[in-house]
Amino acid sequence: MVGRIAFYVGACLFAAFFVLPLLWLTVAPFNELATLSVQIPEEPSLQNFERVFGNSFAIRALAQNSILQAGGAMLLVTLFATLAAYALSRSHIRGSGVITYGLVLFSSVVTGTAAMVPIFLMIFRMGLIDTHVAVILVFTGGLLPAAIFIMRDFVDSIPRSYEESAMVAGASSWRVFGDIALPMVRPGMMVIAVWAFVNVWGGFLIPFILLRSSTKMPASVAIYSFYSEAGTPLVTLTAAYSLLYTLPVLLLYLFVNWRYGFRFFGGIKS
Amino acid sequence: MQRRSILSVPTGLLFMLPAGLFVAAFIVLPFFWIAAVSFTNRTLTGRNAVNPEFIGLGNYRQLFDPSTFLNSGEFGASLLITGQFVLFSAILGQAVLGLVLAWFFYNRRGWVQSTVQTLGIIAWIMPDVVVAFAWFAFLDRDDGTLNQILSALGLGSPDWLLGLPMLSIIIFNIWRGTAFSMLLFSSALGSIPPSHMETASVAGANGWQRLRDVILPLIKTHIATCLILITLWTFNTFTPFLLTGGGPAFQTEVVSIFTYRTAFQFFRFGLGGAVGMIMMLINLAFALVYLAILRSQRVPR
User: Fold this and answer.
1) Which of A193, B9, B55, B207 is deepest in the core (most CB within 10 A)?
2) Which one is predicted more confidently, A92 or B170?
3) What CA–CA distance (Å, rounded) separates B283 from B234?
4) Which among B119, B146, B237 is the nearest to A18, CB-wise?
5) B238 touches chain A (CB under 8 A)
6) Residue contact B134–A21, C-beta within 8 A
7) Rounded to the nearest 5 degrees, what angle is found at the Cα of B37, between the Cα atoms of B228 and A205?
8) How confident is the model at residue B298 (pLDDT cuts 50, 70, 90)?
9) How many structural domains compose chain A?
10) Do residue A36 and residue A145 come from a single domain?
11) Contact assessment for residue B173 and residue B234, using Cβ atoms and an 8 Å cutoff
């Protein structure tokens, strides 16, 4: 009995530790008069959201720029990681083990923060400063190694027998890949796609240093621009915007959790 | 017996080409580029932007100049701050709390466990800027949730971000990243055969003895993996910038913020490159240890 009470008390403390810092974010967006304190609004309203939707700059950042950048990098990462992981798993390329470990090594050494200077200078040299393409390319390069690593484990876990019998029946490599392997690795591709999307969606430093004009800022950078004419931050708008901006991440998490279970991949978050 | 090759080597190389180009351009090339830049006096604008001069180890000499090294806002001070940040928020914070949580909920799966786990995961997956903003409100001196609770309990209301900035970013980072350690240790504990546990409890060991003598030795590779990864991530994180901007008075200026300030506020790319180069060498040391662990896990299979 004492053990059970101690268990519930302990669990409540842990839950409180995780949930208290977010409490404010769950009530302030629905309060027109929100300050930084947690106040249950007497009349909950969607006024803050209406004002966010009336702000074309904020909506462009969220519904256009963030979607474009995260979606673009997601497509490239998923496609190229699948192709590369399949090759590493299914062809006798010499040193494929070394390549896989080399990828892990290089990607943990060359991180976005350590490499911000050369990344900026390279993009500058390529004439791509202040373009969506720059953000997409840099994120794709940065996320690919971990994506290939996770995807290779996934491809390795799939039995080769179907592909082998198709080979015996005379199918070409491309048909074997497209018609047999691809459908089997689709769950892995979904997980990679969600992971890449969420990483770029939440990424701050890369767009922060590579983009200049406010019309191209993703939501992660645009969120810092809600100020009144007097220059004080408008917490009501920022709170509502934060919630809108977080929603896709939470929905994707719920989707992956429901569809595939939140399986544990070593480096799922980089 | 040699297994049949499903993909011929040329086709395989073709499949790897796009990813290979991206990795070469955005991972491998920056590594060498930064080494080159760090030996120059490259700036963003002016004469040295077009024709940077080779200045040898000049940037490194400046970073390690003993007369200023540990002064506030200099490289040595920033390294010390980063060391404290990694030690207290990652190793003592996330890893220990993650292990405590995994141990606490061991064999107690149910809605309570999955609720706490989900809350931890939410803290972990939310975008950086949103959690930083939420914590900015949470830690506010007058209206913040934390001080409202503390003052209701009669514990005073400190000015977290201005008075205790280091403690603030440490607690913040523990909160932010504990989910990873918790999940890793939960799966590690779940993989221990129940018979090991039973033998230990029959032998009359109490909880702490069982943890120390039976459990920890069995999951030591998981512990090593966890420590290396969270150290690498915490060392490279830029998120404290969103909470404190490195201040007040450089008190929370971890090396990632120091690099940013040098390169993008003072526009000294050569010097910023040298800092980035040192960060990469430190990353390399950790990554080599991590690879050694990964390989030792895989070879016997």
Assistant:
1) A193
2) B170
3) 11
4) B119
5) yes
6) yes
7) 55
8) low
9) 2
10) no
11) yes
A23-40: per-residue pLDDT in tens? 999 888 888 877 888 878
- Whether residues A101 and A38 share a domain: the answer is no
Contacts A–B by Cβ distance under 8 A? 293
> Could you tell me the maximum CA-CA distance found in chain A, to the nearest angstrom?
74
Percent of chain B having pLDDT more than 90?
45
Least CB–CB distance from B26: residue in A120, A142, A167:
A142
Task: With a cut of 80, say whether residue B273 has pLDDT above it.
Answer: yes
DSSP output for B185-227? HHHHHHTS-HHHHHHHHHTT--HHHHIIIIIHHHTHHHHHHHH
Contact A92, B5 (CB under 8 A): yes
**Interval A6-20 mean pLDDT:** 93
Statement to judge: residues A225 and A167 lie in one domain: yes
At A108, list the tokens: 């943990």
In the 8-state DSSP scheme, what is residue B40? Answer: B
A41 and A125 co-located in one domain: no
Query: The complex's ipTM?
Result: 0.87
Asked whether the beta carbons of residue A270 and residue B286 sit closer than 8 angstroms, the reply is no
Domains of chain B: 70-298 (1.10.3720.10)
Question: Sorting pLDDT into bands at 50, 70 and 90, what band is A262?
Answer: low
Specify whether A190 is located in the same domain as A229: yes
- Span of A143-152, B93-102, B171-180, B200-209 with lowest mean pLDDT: B200-209
| A237 and A181 inside one domain | yes
Half-sphere exposure of A30 (CA within 13 A, CB side): 13
Exposure of B261 in the CB half-sphere (CA atoms within 13 A): 16
Is residue A127 within 8 A of residue A137, CB to CB? The reply is no
- Is A165 in the same domain as A215? yes
CATH code for position A151: 1.10.3720.10
- Looking at the fold, whether A161 and A41 belong to one and the same domain comes out as no
A-contacting residues of B 69-108, CB under 8 Å? 101, 104, 108
Can you tell me the distance from the alpha carbon of A3 to that of A66, in angstroms, rounded to the nearest whole number?
49
Q: Is residue A223 part of a domain?
A: yes
Model pLDDT, residue B3:
53
- In chain B, pLDDT over 70 holds for what percent of residues? 95
pLDDT tens figures, B189-248: 888 888 877 776 777 677 778 778 888 888 888 888 899 989 999 999 999 999 998 889
| Whether pLDDT at B1 is above 70 | no
User: What are A212's two structure tokens?
Assistant: 């200049």
Contact yes or no for B148 and A119 at CB 8 A: no
A163 lies in some domain: yes
Give B246's contacts in chain A (Cβ within 8 Å): none
The full DSSP string for B59-70 is HHHHHT-TTTTT
pTM of the model: 0.89
For A263, what's the count of Cα atoms within 13 Å in the CB-facing half-sphere?
11
